[in-house]
Amino acid sequence: METQVTKLSKWVKQLRAQVPVVKSKLINEIPGPINFPFIGNIIYFCDPKYGLDPRHTLRTMKYVNGKYGPMVRLKVPLRPTMVFLFDPYLCEKVYSSLGCQPVRPAFDALTFVQSRRQSWQGKKGLLVSHKEEWKDMRTKVQQPMLRPETAKCYISQLEEIATEFIENKVIPHRNKNNEMPDDFQQELYKWALECVMLISLNTRMGCLQNTLPKGSDAENLIEAVGSIFRLNQRLDMGMQLWRYTPLQGPTMRRFQRTCDLFYTISEKHVQISIEKIRKNGTAAQKKTLLELFHEKGCDEKTFTIMALDMLFAGIDTASHTVAFALFLLASHKNKQEKLYREVVEKVGVDGRLEKNSFNSMPYLKAVVKETLRMFAPASANIRELESDLSLDGYCLPAGTRMVFCHFTM
Questions:
Q1: How are strands ordered across the β-sheet holding 71-74?
Q2: Using 50, 70 and 90 to split pLDDT, how confident is the model at 21?
Q3: CA distance readout (Å), 120 to 112, 144, 263, 276, 305
Q4: Contacts of 187 (CB under 8 A, 6+ apart)
Q5: What mean pLDDT comes out for the span 368-381?
Q6: Angle formed at CA 137 by CA 134 and CA 141, multiple of 5 degrees
Q7: Which of 119-123, 222-226, 368-372 has the lowest mean pLDDT?
Q8: CA separation, residue 95 to residues 100, 106, 171 (Å)
Q9: SS3 383
Q10: Average pLDDT, the chain
Q11: Residue 211 scores a pLDDT above 90
């Protein structure tokens, strides 16, 4: 006589037999532009109105998302298959599968140039390193980098920079409608460089002079950072033939010269700051990030590379975030007035910021957070799968590069 357990077991087996087996689809079945032998589908991975111009990458993301859906496949010869994600749920699932030390492919051209820089002895900064190398660098610098007091010590000097910026770069250049000229972003780059140099190296570059001397370090640094981002974006697209040819093309040669200029000028100022630390020691209260790196036992090569990372990444991200914040406030006059009233109430018309001033200005914090939500400093993040992953009915093999298009979501 069959027991109840046996009957239940048979019933479960019969039920399973009736359920159709859903087989995961292959990565090549993910929607995307038509794929051609040898050349992949990159020639149609664009908004037809703007073509493959990297300056219109965000328009391309919006176009392919609208045409192909939340997952879009891109195949480029000599490159791993890329899958673009436009759905937060799919992004969350991929992120949770990667662990705490993922492979973060980005700035391929910059990584290529850095790896050939002999003076660095093979070391890389946080921007382009991965896994154990990234963890080792992060462990050395995370405590000083995540220390709010480092920036708070410079509030009075940062306020002086802001005042100088308004007096020299804003008021004289406004038109009769109080609008700024089209090249105002260039002035924000100067403001950002001045702030980053102060906090990281405790020095002023003189970026906010009415007229920068032609060929000055400040002018060359600002132009170099902008060129590096633009050229890197162009070089990272396509097949990246510069990886395989001993004679580099004109774009890569220009990129290498620009990187060399940026690193030469930056390393000069880092070395000046290091010599000051050796000569004078560290101040008891106000310490730069470079001094904090030194206190934590970082070798000279490590904190030199970290300082270069801060200069390179800080100028672009800080200036763009402020530009977007100003744009949003100008577009919503009632919110601008509300923020103004909060600042006047807490600080006063002629008051000065203190270390804890920001703690009593919640609306200012909300404006910053909303700016970052709507206009993230980076348009996307990339991760490389180290093992096969099943995602939304597709089997994605190890080595696939996942692009999280959070700016477009």
A1: 71-74, 82-85, 401-404, 381-384
A2: very low
A3: 13, 22, 11, 22, 8
A4: 165, 169, 170, 173
A5: 91
A6: 135
A7: 119-123
A8: 9, 16, 45
A9: strand
A10: 86
A11: no
In DSSP terms, 383 is beta-bridged to 402
Neighbours of 305 (CB within 10 A): 25
- Specify the amino acid at residue 105: P
Q: What is the DSSP string of 201-247?
A: HS----TTSSSPPTT-HHHHHHHHHHHHHHHHHHHHSTT-GGGT-SS
Q: What is the pLDDT of residue 362?
A: 95
Q: pLDDT category, 1, cuts 50, 70, 90?
A: very low
Place of tokens 């290498």: 256
Structure tokens belonging to residue 126: 């946080």
Tokens of residue 157, six digits: 């000097």
> DSSP label at 173?
G
Helix (H, G, I), strand (E, B) or coil at 405: coil
Q: What angle do CA 94, 100, 105 make, to 5 degrees?
A: 65
- Look up tokens 């990234």; give the residue: 134
d(CA 104, CA 130): 6
Task: Look up residue 129 and give its two tokens.
Answer: 């390193």
What is the model's pTM? 0.83
CA distance 160 to 64: 46
- The one-character DSSP state at 170 is I
Q: For the residues 325-343, what does the mean pLDDT come to? A: 95
- State the pLDDT at residue 114: 82
Contacts of range 130-133, beta carbons closer than 8 Å, 24 or more positions apart: 130/101, 130/102, 130/103, 130/104, 130/105, 131/101, 131/102, 131/103, 132/101
Summarised one tens digit per residue, pLDDT across range 2-16 is: 566 566 666 555 655
257 vs 353, which has greater pLDDT? 257
Rg, Å, the chain Cα set: 26
